[in-house]
Structures are given as structure tokens and as C-alpha cells.
User: Fold this.
Amino acid sequence: MQRATGSTEQAIYRATTAAAARGGSGPRHALERGTITYTRNPHHHHHHYYNQDRPAPAATMSVPLRAMTVAALAGCGLLIVVYRVRSTKYLAQVFVMVWSAQLLAWLLWTTLVYPHYTSPLRRIPTAPGAHWVFGHGPKILAANPGASLREWITTVPHNGLIRYFFFFNRERVIVTSPKALAEVLVTKNYLFPKPDAVRTSLGRVLGYGILLAEGDEHKVQRKNLLPAFHFRHVKSLYPTFWRKARELLDAMEVAVRAGDDDDDGAVLEVNSWASRCTLDIIGVAGMGVDFGAIQDENNPLASTYINLSTPTRQAKVLMVLGMVLPGWLITHLPIKRNDDINAAAQRIRGVCRDLVVEKRRRLASKEPLDPDIISVALESGLFTDEQLVDQLMTFLAAGHDTTASALTWALYMMTRHPEMQQRLRDEVRAALPSPSADADSDISSADIDRLPYLNAFCSEVLRVFSPVPQTIREAACDTTIQGQFIPRGTRIMLSPWGTNVEPGLWGKDAAEFKPERWLSGGGGGSVGGGGDGSGASSIGGGGAESNYAFMTFLHGPRSCIGAAFARAELACLLAACAGRFEYELADEAMADERNIKLKAAVTARPAYGMPLRTRVVEGW
Assistant:
């Protein structure tokens, strides 16, 4: 056996793939044949690490199209050879009949028999109310993203695992307890990659950057991108965040005064403002370019992302089909939704490619480069231009959409709790300089750190309204979670929206929006701000029983690399917005969160915007 150079989990992950390709079923077969070796991938250097062998798709319950087709063809071949049948029409009928019979048998087995009578997961506590064919699928689609999982985590008695059924009774397992989460995210992290179908779907818009990379590929990318997110670099970005916040305030104030005919303020759709501002920030701080989205509500790049996240019936249909059909087939279906996604992806890719070309030119001419994402990646020498484009696509989408979501919910909760809004405004105005255009009012990280209630409020927003409500993994091989056998191909669900408010971890007031929990022994909102991008937090942050109670940035090797960046950006933007304006709900029906429909997207954002009546508060 060769000298070990990677973790045991990575070795098993690679060995499982090799065993499956040879006809084995998992690591057990690989071990029996002595095929597990701990070797460094020969392509794992310079520009080639992207080309390492990708893992074979896990044995999920997708329709076995190839096997069914081969069997039907074999039946036709038997008729030709043995019975000398020559009628093309008859053979075609036989093919269709055999193929259809197999499909029916497969559906009956996988939908009605396997999940209820033979599945090794059947003894896991199961969410109630499943349809006999469609499982909990209709309930999940009818509810907001992540809402059903939050409900089950807080109401179904369990010991860290909960089972539910997606469409056609496809089993999924929600992981909830700290020990189970630690297994999936840390100790066995490489055994639970994102499903290929998810990577294929998201990769068109997000690019195949660090968010969708797996195994050694992810490890190398993270190591080489981490300097751009080091806490010292993030601290240097506070003046940039504040300057963009000032620009946002000025533009919003113009809009408010233009629409304020009766001194009662104007209704602004703050989600749009937040999205355009965070897009500008990731451009300036992450890529060295200002997209100018704050000043242009019809900004082409911002509009592209808005159109992509607009909920459509076809998007929901594609999501359901993705449960039974391979990802490559879903993305090639001749429907308008796919055409729209492909066109948007080309526009975004074009913008990112232009940025890479310009940075290459500056690097070649020996011009000094700022320590932003693209510059750090370029200077590492480990990325080709197209790989850099993928990274920029990832950070453009993930870097602005998530923080915009958090800021939107922060402003919403200020309207729900006027006393908190006033307390925030008082603290900000007492400690920070006026952001008026004629004042030299740049701030530092120390200025924000001295605002305990602001940081506590941000932490509570990130807890209760995690920008990404849920994420999915897939068992790459037969394994276990807390002693429960998990078959290869099982979909594993992580639910920040559920875990972040679980009473067993946060106490009886877990569902309450209560910033004060971060002021009494909780570290003043330090959760998720591990300056190295680890997303780590101190145990008991916010009074929780475990650091795994706060799942907004995940944990372990796959935790959010931009956690410190996002927290700093949110704090600066919220401080500015709370200090300058007063907010009220434009529609009182939205006071009940259940009346706010969310987009069927990766991030939790209102489907129809967040209209708030906004007034300028003079004196700052």
C-alpha cells in the first residue's frame, strides 16, 4: 500500500467510485480486493487539478433508462434470432411493451414497496402526512423553500435523523443533531458530496467554482482562494463597504424624496435595492470593478439575476423531473426555461470573461493588483482563464444574493419590532460618523465591532432567516450516520432554517426573534465570523447548546469561505440603513410571515419583493 497523502474519507470516496466502475457495490468490495490506495492524484498540480477523475454518479433511485432499453432490445433480438421475426412494426410494439412493463414494475417497486417494507431507512422517525404516491412532494412545493423541513425538525420526535418522502416516495433524510451534523460536515465530509443533478443544474449559472467542486478539487481551490477572504483582508474592506452604503443611502433618499408628496415617506422595494447594492460590492471588493447597479435599476447584470430567480411553473416542473431523470437530460429539454437559463448564463459568463481578460492584461503589464478574489486566483497560477470565469460566476451569484437576502429580512424585522429599530438607530448614530456625501466618514472594522446591538441583531437575522434555507448532499457509498446505515445514493438534507430554531438546541424561545440572546454570554454576535472563512463559532454562541446549532454558514471543510466577508458587509449596510431611514410595512398583511411567499430558489427571498414605507430621519 502506498504512502497516505489524503484523508481516509477521500480514499474511500475514490475507492468506492473505482469499485462501482468494476461492478462492486462500495468500499467493502474495494477492501476485499485490496484496491484502496492512498495516492496523490497525478493531475493534482498547476492547471490540471480540474481534470482529475470525477466520481461516478451514485446509485440513486433514478430511472434505469439504459438497463431498461438494453433489456427491451435484448427481447427484440431474441425474437429475431429464435423466432425469425422480421416485422419492424411488430418488433417496435414488443420493444415498447417490454420497456413500459419494466417502467411500471420499477415504479411499483420504488414507490410502493421498497420505501415502506424493505428500505434500511424505514425505522427512522418519519414525517407524517405523506401521499401514497407523491409523498411529501406536494406539501414541500406548496410551502416556502425550507419551511416543511423547519416544521418537521421542530415537531417530529427524533434522535438526530428524520425521514421524509419526496415525489414518488423518494426517501430523504434530514440531519439535525450536532453529532450527526459533525459526521456529515466534518468527519465524513468527503463521503457526502452534492448530487450530480444539483451540480449540473446550478453549474450553468453559478459556474463550476468552489461552491460546486468536490473532493481534492475543492480542497485545492479553497486553499488557493482563502487569502482573498482572510480576516485581515476583510478588515481592510470595511471602508469599501461603507462607501457603497453611503452611495446606497444617497440613491434611496433621492427616491424617497421624489415619491414623498405628503411627508409620509415613499414605498421602496428594498429587496431590489439590497440586491443591486450587494452586486456592486462584490464587484468592487471581490473583482475590482464597479457594475453601477445602485445607480441603474435596469442594470443588465442585475436584471439577469432577477429574471433567473423569478418563479415559474416550468422551474417547478424541472425540479420534480430532476428526481427521476438524469441532470444532463433535464438541462437539454427543449423548453423556454432552459433557453432562458442558457441565455442568462452566457451573459454572465461573458461579463466574467471580460474581467479575467482585463486582469490578465494588468498582470502581464506588471500593474499592481488589488488583493481581490480574481487577483489572488490569478497570482496563484493554478487556474486557467475558463476556470477563473467559473470562480467569478460563483462569487458573483453567491456573493451578492445571500447578503441581499439577509439585509432584506433585517429591514423587515425592523418593521416588525419598532423598538428594536429605534435601539439600532440610536446606537448607530451615537457611534458612527454621518454618511452624508460631504463628510469624510469612512469607518473601520473597530467602529462596527463597538456596536453590540447591531452585531447581535445581525446574528439573529442570520439565525432565523438563514439566506440559504436548506442544502442537499448524497451518500457516495454505503456508510452510517450515528450508527444508522445509510445506503449509497441516499439524499441527505441539511436545514439551517430548521436547525437554527430547534428548541432542543436553542431553548423554548428558539422561534422568537430575540437579538438579546447574543448579548448575554453569546459572544455579541460572533457566530459565523471565523475570520479565516471557516464559519466557525464559539460553543454556546447565542446561548445554544452547540456551535452546530448555528448552521447558516455550515461547518467544516465545506463551510462558507466568505462568512466573515458577508457578516462585515451586512453589518455595514444595516448600520447605514438603520441610521438614515425609518421603515414600516407597506402591506400590513406581511406582518404575518406566513403571508410572504418566497421564491423557489437557492436563497430565501420574497417572491414579490419587500415593499417598505421608507422615511428619511433627519439629523444624521
In short: The chain is about 50% helix and 5% strand. Residues 1-9, 16-59, 522-540 have pLDDT under 50 and may be disordered. Residues 468 and 602 are 6 Å apart (CA to CA).
